[in-house]
Amino acid sequence: MRYSGAYVPDEDPVDRWAYERAARPRKKKRTSGILLRVLVALLLVCAVALLYVRQYTVAGDSMEPTLMAGDRVFYVGFSHAEYGDLIIFDAGETYGLVIKRVAGLPGDRIEIAPDGSLIRNGEPVEEAYILPDALGNSEMQEITVARGRLFVLGDHRAASIDSRDIRVGQIRVEAVRGIVTRLLRDTQPKS
Asked: Which residues have a Cβ under 8 Å from the Cβ of 172 and sit 6 or more positions away?
């Protein structure tokens, strides 16, 4: 018998089955493997969204003009707060979850001018988003933010109960539930 370079199975049915099985392309397995990976990735994204992205509905006018009562915001937990971030935090049994803007980090020296303008570490901070106190009742003497705490302010300085008020004070970093990432505003006129 001459060797032709190609294997020809013997007449044994087991050999023939093994030969034919090995010779078939495995497209179905590759396609189902890709579909399985895509499905697992989508499930992971959904799980992350459900675990880390939360919704909060704004109540009150302390964050005007940035946020209005009834606005819905979405926030992500497990983030590190920075200057200007809108954060959701637990203000205790009296106020529950509250939204405010980060004005001071641990070690910062914070002072508030009569019109509500922020002075951080001796320098005025540009805050185009605030609604100033027209009556000039928002003044606060300089304080230093304690370690492990944040100093927060509402954008409507005359109407906000925030870190200037002893009822809220400097908030613990651990009380922060998340940082606002998106705003959803109802644009339909109220009737």
From this structure: 148, 149
120 three-class SS: strand
Task: Provide the CA 100 distance to its chain's centre, in angstroms.
Answer: 14
Cα–Cα distance for residue pair 73/56, rounded to 1 Å: 5
pLDDT tens for the chain, 191 residues: list them. 454 555 555 566 666 666 666 555 555 667 778 888 888 888 887 776 666 677 888 888 899 999 888 888 888 877 788 999 999 999 888 888 899 999 999 999 999 999 999 999 999 999 999 988 888 888 999 999 999 999 999 999 998 989 998 888 999 999 999 898 888 876 655 55
Instruction: Give Cβ neighbours of residue 19 (< 8 Å, ≥ 6 apart).
Output: 7, 9
d(CA 129, CA 83): 13
CB atoms within 10 A of CB 152: 27
Distance CA(28)–CA(138), nearest Å, equals 70
Residue 115 to residue 132: CA distance in whole angstroms: 5
184-157-167 Cα angle (round to 5): 95
The answer to whether the Cα torsion of 72, 76, 81, 85 is positive or negative is negative
Amino acid making up residue 76: V
User: For residues 55 and 159, what is the distance between their CA atoms, to the nearest angstrom?
Assistant: 24
| Furthest CA-CA distance within the chain | 109
